[in-house]
Amino acid sequence: MFSFLLLGSYLRAKIKFLQNFLVPVALIGGFLAMLMNESFIGKIAPYLSLPFDIDRLGVYVYHLLAITFIAMAWRKPEGEKRGRDAVAMGVSSSTLYALQGVVGIGLGFLLMYTIYPGLFPTFGAIAPLGFGQGPGLTFSIANGWETNFNFKHAGNLGLTLAAFGYFWACFIGVPLVNIGIRKGWATLVKDKSHLSRDVYTGFFSKDSKRPIAGKLTTTSEAIESFAFHVALIGLMMLITYIIMFPIINLLIGVGAAGIASTLEGFFFIFATLLTLLARIIVHKIGLGHIIDNGTMSRIAGLSVDFLVVCSIAAISLAVVIDFIVPILVTGVAVGLVTLYFCFWYAKRSYDKFPFERAIAIYGMLTGTINTGLILLRMVDPEYETPVAQDLVYTSAISLPLCAPLLFMINLPLKGVEVVGDSWQTVNPAAYWQTLIGVLAMYIVLMLVYRLTGLVKFKRPLRKIWIDD
Q1: What is the pTM assigned to this prediction?
Q2: Residues 289, 219: contact at Cβ < 8 Å?
Q3: Is 134 in contact with 336 (CB distance < 8 Å)?
Q4: Which residues, 6 or more positions from 90, have their beta carbon under 8 angstroms from its beta carbon?
Q5: Partner of 134 for a Cys bridge, out of 118, 368, 467, 468, CB 3.0 to 4.6 A?
Q6: How do residues 397-413 score in pLDDT, each as one tens digit?
Q7: Membrane-spanning regions, if any (predicted)?
């Protein structure tokens, strides 16, 4: 994976097409690795393929996700209070995520009862997971369905639809930014000339002013500061493991494999909550100065880059071909709904920087918070607006609001019975309970959004973008 990141960096620095679409290096490296695995080039020229262990790559994705969230949880939040627009971003992104769930799950059931009768009932949840939560969480949850309920290739499908989300972020998002700049929707920039060559190539030039990565909090004679911060992350993973896995084994022992699978998929959430508690304790006892936000951000960034490479490298061509219709139907539908409503809400929700906020949320809901920041940088290159900080705040608001959805997507499992190495439906009512539950969640969030005055239904309602 190291080699593919380096090769991706070289290609990004040299190829104009990749530069124009600001394709992240991790995405380039991941697709290169995917092409080299046995299910792609191995079918044409086996002697050229690389023998990737797909299951091992999945394990890497699972743990890299936890590392990313733990590193971010160790960071001390900025003391600055966020304004109304930041809250509106949090509620709108949660509402959109619920809408992604309604569309994905609804289409999944439609396919299952029509042209794809053998489709597993939780398939429809994979698209909103992949788009809204990224490859790490999607694989983590889907792999649990595969392991405990015989949803064949679920983990790989999760990685595939997450990669589809990145496609929407880069190849639809970047042209959208260009359109917004041309039409004068962007607040700070009126053309692309403000973007330095460094942004396109991915490397700072010799004369560029380079940002500070972080500050040392330990003396090198005792321990390298970076190693100390990595050790803090490792400690929280160990504590989470010690607490969680006896509970998971107990649940499996009493026949609650479905609940155990859900808990295992949410390892990163429990790790994050424990880290937040640990951070509070560390600051209360006066040791907060030994943790550097910049260093933790670098570790999180490193983890995300390798997570993306591993997740895309693990995609199987055979699985994509077998599920091509459900992948396209749910992926295109969820992408279109996300695109439409991110911009429909913009001028109806945000008082300041509506286009910047819309493009940032669009990037986050088709990839990760990093893709949102990449798109935002095209219209706010120095992060002069509060949108970048508000996007981080948005994640904090949306986590509790979206948590019910992460549990509801497992409700169809109540209607499934494992039979040997397959499965069968025993309670179809559980499927419809899921769809009704997700739809109810969307309606409740929409009511909260409307009644709090965070969104106003400005007319004409059919127009996506309302000109001033």
Answers
A1: 0.84
A2: no
A3: no
A4: 393, 394, 396, 397, 398, 401
A5: 368
A6: 887 888 888 889 988 98
A7: 21-37, 57-74, 95-116, 157-181, 226-254, 266-287, 299-320, 327-346, 358-379, 429-449
